[in-house]
Amino acid sequence: MDDFVQLFGRVATVVAHAHGRVNLIGEHTDYNGGFVLPTLIPQRTTIQLAPRSDDHVRVASVSLDGKPTAFVLGAEARRHDWVDYVQGVARTLRNAGYCLSGFDALIQSSVPVGSGLSSSAALDVALMRALRQAFQLDLDAFQLALLGQRVENEFVGAQVGIMDPMVCSLGREGWALFLDAQSLQNHLEPLPANADLVVVNSGVAHRHSAGDYNARRAECEGACSLLGVGKLRELSEADLPRVAALPEPLNRRARHVVTENARVLKAVEALRDGDLHRLGQLFNESHDSQRDDYQVSIAEIDLLVDLARGDERVYGARLTGGGFGGSIVLLVRGGTGRDCAARLRASYEQQSGCKATILVPPDVSS
Ligand code: GLA
């Protein structure tokens, strides 16, 4: 008997999935109205679901404790755990005018939580896809992403940007999604066939709502008001002298955002030119800027990045995601990803005592 039947005593009528993501470049730019360049990872979240005829929701997560928990539609209340995403999706969809009744749902996910790979947006998007199918909601991929951000901002209480729900909803494996977080214009760019991406989780989990992320946002807003702009996106590299005159640490925060936006545009050019060395160099500059100016890295992540850069097959390496832990992404010579990742993990574990996990390339043996 499958888990859904065992838990809920009936069969699921709908199954939906959403992949996690890795951001290639463009970190902490989305909430500043800037540019991002994420792609999907193979790990994904799956929702099995069956509608109910009352207003009750029962939900369990196989990947967490496996125990079902319940709430009533219209009486959602924040509990500060994973069920808030489910409550938030139900509340947000209904507030936006979509008709739902209760449902039973089972969540399964291979996207590690707290790894900077967007386990929460994958859950929001997968659940909205399942509900769309179950209740025939008239909801396209773009609207779904906008609602996904509202779930996090308005219900969960994480002031995240638009990147994660957008790429989880609109992204495609093997392609990068270029997104202008101000106009929301976006398009897909093919990833180079002659390079491998490697994603390694440091084993040190981040917690977004823990305040550091929101503190960086507030610093950017502080820099904007001193500079007299609405969003840091309005500044270009020509404005860096003005930025340098800001008080510490606002000068560093704004310099990161301005230079990072420029790097995303250069990265798209490098992708189109097939210039892997240039792209790798941009990854490296992005990491250094996150470490020194935005100050969102930690010692374990810097160690991983330094070890990666010591391998001549690596074009570039950087912290990916919100920071304060999580994962790094590397661009490496085609065909060498698996070996680079294995060596990196071994030296990192030996030097840090932390357990790393290789997410990309995925482990084909398991
Ligand atoms: C988290 C947020 C994103 C983005 C990144 C940093 O992943 O969810 O919106 O701000 O951090 O680039």
Bound molecules: alpha-D-galactopyranose
Number of helices: 11
Oligomer: single chain
With strands numbered from the N-terminus, the spatial order across the biggest sheet is 1-3-6-4-5
Largest sheet: 5 strands, mixed
Nearest-integer average pLDDT: 96
Residue stretches low in confidence (pLDDT < 50, at least 5 long) are none
Shape field: globular
CA-based gyration radius: 21 Å
Write down the secondary-structure element order: HEEEEEHEHHHEEEHHHHHEEHE
Secondary-structure-based class equals: alpha+beta
Distance between the termini: 23 Å
Binned strand content: 15-25%
* Percent helix range: 40-55%
Number of strands: 12
Topology:
Elements: H1 3-8, E1 14-23, E2 35-36, E3 38-51, E4 56-61, E5 69-72, H2 83-95, E6 103-109, H3 119-134, H4 141-156, H5 163-170, E7 175-180, E8 186-190, E9 195-201, H6 212-227, H7 240-244, H8 250-273, H9 276-294, H10 299-309, E10 314-320, E11 327-333, H11 337-352, E12 357-360
Parallel strand pairs: 4-6
Antiparallel strand pairs: 1-3, 2-7, 3-6, 4-5, 7-8, 9-11, 9-12, 10-11
Helix pairs in contact: 2-3, 2-4, 3-4, 3-5, 4-5, 6-8, 8-9, 10-11
The structure holds alpha-D-galactopyranose (GLA).
Explain how this protein is built:
The chain is 41% helix and 22% strand. The protein is an alpha+beta fold and 366 residues long. The chain has a 5-stranded mixed β-sheet. A 4-stranded antiparallel β-sheet has the order 10-11-9-12. β4 (56-61) and β5 form a beta hairpin. The model has no long low-confidence stretch (mean pLDDT 96). Bound molecules: alpha-D-galactopyranose. The site of alpha-D-galactopyranose has 11 residues, from α5.
